[in-house]
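Retry 2 of 3 after timeout on previous attempt. Resubmitting structure tokens to design endpoint.
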């Protein structure tokens, strides 16, 4: 059983930066594509970014392209989401999730593909 724990959320001013971490335990994180999703109050959970199991493929939602960057550190069983130039509309609970069926060089931003989910970390962008 794979367990995921997110950290790094908090309160930040518009234009600021945060780095979220997703730490895995229970099974090798390197087997899975990992996605970051977010859910704002009253809205559907949406895909933000994902990275393939081999780390060679990344995808981003249009709303975060050029501002967010995803990476993975296999040795630490950790996936990071670096968030820069944050806007108020980035305020949400951020979740990481593992896709157990994705092929090695692929990841998607469809939440229905993901099996294991963390509990989420709150990000608030406000002055």
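Retry 2 succeeded. Sequence:
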């Amino acid at each position: 059983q794979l367990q995921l724990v997110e950290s790094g959320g908090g309160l930040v001013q518009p234009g600021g930066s945060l780095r979220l971490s997703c730490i895995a335990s229970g099974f090798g994180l390197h087997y899975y594509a990992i996605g970051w999703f977010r859910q704002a109050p009253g809205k559907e959970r949406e895909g933000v970014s994902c990275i393939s199991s081999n780390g060679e493929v990344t995808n981003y939602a249009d709303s975060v392209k050029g501002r967010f960057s995803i990476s993975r550190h296999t040795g630490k069983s950790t996936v990071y989401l670096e968030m820069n130039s944050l806007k108020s509309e980035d305020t949400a609970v951020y979740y990481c999730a593992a896709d157990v069926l994705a092929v090695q060089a692929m990841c998607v931003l469809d939440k229905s593909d993901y099996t294991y989910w963390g509990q989420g970390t709150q990000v608030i962008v406000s002055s």
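Attempt log closed. The longest strand covers residues 18-25.
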